[in-house]
Backbone:
């Protein structure tokens, strides 16, 4: 994968989902910010979406490319916030040979 770091031009923030008890004693899940990094965003082509997700909705899917080395290892159940929208991580592909880039397939969270 020959990406240039100059193309990492969008800021994204990763959030985990953590269970906590609110002031009323009710168990809730709340997002906890993990870290922010630079990313390159690429729209998915329909054939790529179909091969990745099958019959799921074919819209609002993006490919996010970030540097492999980050503050923390990214988990599949985390969320990504980008342009004030939340995205669910669907798949993480790590560059195991060169350890330069991580590619994430994400789908805009349905409201």
Residues:
């Amino acid at each position: 994968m020959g990406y240039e770091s100059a193309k990492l031009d969008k800021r994204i923030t990763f959030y985990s989902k953590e269970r906590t008890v609110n002031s009323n004693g009710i168990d809730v899940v709340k997002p906890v910010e993990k870290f922010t990094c630079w990313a390159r965003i690429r729209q998915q082509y329909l054939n790529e979406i179909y091969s990745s997700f099958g019959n799921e909705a074919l819209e609002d899917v993006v490919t996010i490319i970030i540097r492999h080395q980050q503050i923390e290892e990214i988990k599949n159940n985390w969320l990504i916030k980008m342009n004030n929208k939340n995205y669910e991580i669907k798949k993480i592909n790590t560059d195991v040979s060169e350890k330069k880039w991580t590619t994430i397939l994400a789908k805009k969270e349905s409201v």
Notes: Residues 5-108 form a domain with the Thrombin, subunit H fold (CATH 2.40.10.270).
